[in-house]
Amino acid sequence: MYQELLLKQIRSKIGDKSLNDEIANVLNISYDASHRRTSMKSKFSLEESLVLAKYYNISLDSFMESDNQIIAKKTKPIRTVTDLLNYFDDALHLLNDFKINKETEVYYSAKDIPFFYTISDSVLSRFKLFVWMNLLNEKDFMQPFDDFKLERYSDKSEDLKSLYENLNVTEIWNNTTISSILNQVLFYSEIEILSEETAKLILEELKVLIKSIEKKAENENKNFHIYAHDILILNNSILFKNEEKSSLFVPYNMFGYMMTDDQSTCDDALNFFQHQIKNSTSLSFSGQRDRKKFFNSMLERIESLKNSI
């Protein structure tokens, strides 16, 4: 039964390619040996099954018999700037199955401003990288922000940002979503790691970003919906789903995620998101008053901090 399930998932991945050829190439076995396995005359070894699952990015969740157990992947630990930049490359690889499907839906519980908005080469994005590295306790990392230089800039970051912008995205925000970036600017300014000039530049870029998100909501973009929830405690979890696959990402530390493709778990997460949306105010389709009130509140907080620095 399990071998049949594994073969079925591989077939869905390879399209019109020869299944026997694929198995032979991945496992480095003969065509005849591959045919014996695809015809069920012989069994995959445990090692062969793991090799195939890893190569085709197939979750083993589907082979679990218990509704209360799932298998989850986790992102690699981040200790250096290179690790962090590689994180974006790895994220793009994990989401590869979703980027070619325009029907993919994304649900984002925005405890912080979604990181997809801050993965460019702007000062705001560089500051976020700087903060992440400090909070991840990299040795000897406390230094003036103006001295912080990236060893390289990941070209995959723009690809990841573009992927997010081209999918059907639903975000849930509240009045605390912007708090962390404001607190970070204030903290690093007070300990004089962030200069007054640079802090104000970061806040100006933040205002531009908030206005651009408001503009997306105002235009009633069919691919973008944003909701405000007054009492929900958000957690930065993200759900990607289409007709073929679902993946749920749940943070387990500041910038580390556990990821599962378990369909039952993803369905539960979808139901939770949809229930919270029913209890939220749509900033995309509500009247201009509610939308302006929400975004103006954030812009006023940014301006207030800018004037106090």
Q: What would your notes on this structure say?
A:
This is BetR domain-containing protein. It comes from Epilithonimonas lactis. With 309 residues, this protein is α+β, with helices and mostly antiparallel strands. The chain has 2 domains: 2-58, 434 Repressor (Amino-terminal Domain) (Orthogonal Bundle), CATH 1.10.260; 73-308, no CATH class. Helix content is 50%, strand content 11%. It has 12 helices and 8 strands. The protein has helices at residues 2-14, 19-27, 31-38, 46-55, 81-94, 96-99, 123-135, 155-165, 179-190, 196-218, 263-278, 288-308; strands spanning 73-74, 105-109, 168-173, 224-228, 238-241, 246-251, 257-260, 281-282. The chain has an 8-stranded mixed β-sheet with strand order 1-7-6-5-2-3-4-8, sandwiched between helices. α2 packs across α3 (31-38), α5 crosses α8 (155-165) and α10 (196-218) packs antiparallel against α12. The longest helix is centred in the last third of the chain and has 23 residues, at 196-218. It is globular and about 75 Å long. The termini are far apart. The mean pLDDT is 87.
Distance between the termini: 65 Å
Which residue ranges are poorly predicted, with pLDDT under 50 across at least 5 consecutive positions?
none
Count, helices? 12
What is the radius of gyration computed over CA atoms, rounded to a whole number of angstroms?
Answer: 22 Å
Q: Element order, helices and strands?
A: HHHHEHHEHHEHHEEEEHEH
Based on Cα principal axes, name the global outline.
globular
| Major sheet details | 8 strands, mixed
